[in-house]
Amino acid sequence: MNDTHEGSSGTAMSYQDAPTRTVTADQVTFAYRELGPRSGIPVIFLTHLAAVLDNWDPRVVDGIAAKHRVITFDNRGVGASTGSTPKTIEKMADDAVTFIRALGLDQVDILGFSMGGMIAQVIAQNEPQLVRRLILAGTGPAGGKGIKNVTRISHLDTLRALLTLQDPKQYLFFTRTANGRRAGKEFLARLKERTQHRDKAISPSSYLSQLKAIHRWGLQAPADMSRIHQPVLVANGESDRMVPSENTLDLAARLPRGELVPLYPDAGHGGIFQFHDAFVASALTFLKAHPDA
């Protein structure tokens, strides 16, 4: 195992300035960033389709890192991490566990957004002693309604974005109302706040592998959510086109210890970014309320 970083060795005060570090395990060099207090159970962030380190909303990262150690990372084959991206959510979960273990961690909390929320569900079931509690946002269970359509929606909205010279996330993550358009522009502006030592963009082959993994997840038989015994906070916008919002309600109902954040109004897949202040407050309350889950 090795551990290197850019910049100073001190604890970063904001995600914008957090150095990119690396750790090697199972012949993969994982790129990651961390900030926040060094004590306590860390919160591992698992990100969405096509995302790299720079795609996390700094308001969400900084908000949670104000009270907790936060670690974001590129999974195998993504961004600055080496290796080939798997074509199943289950294998992505194995790789995420490899990364967590490589940091010497034996218990973590997980915040999984979209595809990351799918990965988080597998980790919680396969490694129950590793995960203390979960926050699942903009995601759904295996076999969830409409998840198999993510590939088609992603392709269509990417084409729309190209034709209108916009970022695809403006369409994929936000509603087309005035509020949604404004929230999307503000979110995309926040993603550009980091100007130095930015991550590598995802490669086309890795993106296609992720799409295949999500499609397979959507075609699976419904998962047995009773196997997830940890406390789980579930959040989403009320108008999610990528992973239909009813999947969020389904998760909250089927998880033995599920807790639903009321769906954010006039918000889509990126509801936790549009309502980042409210989401961070809910997440911090949830993390504090379950110290010995």
TrEMBL record:
AB hydrolase-1 domain segment(s): 42-273
The record's listing under InterPro entries reads: AB_hydrolase, AB_hydrolase_1, AB_hydrolase_fold
Family annotation (Pfam families): Abhydrolase_1
Annotated protein name in UniProt: Pimeloyl-ACP methyl ester carboxylesterase
Mind telling me which PANTHER family this protein's record contains?
Answer: AB HYDROLASE-1 DOMAIN-CONTAINING PROTEIN, HYDROLASE, ALPHA/BETA FOLD FAMILY PROTEIN
Q: Which GO terms describe its molecular function?
A: catalytic activity
Give the source species.
Kitasatospora gansuensis
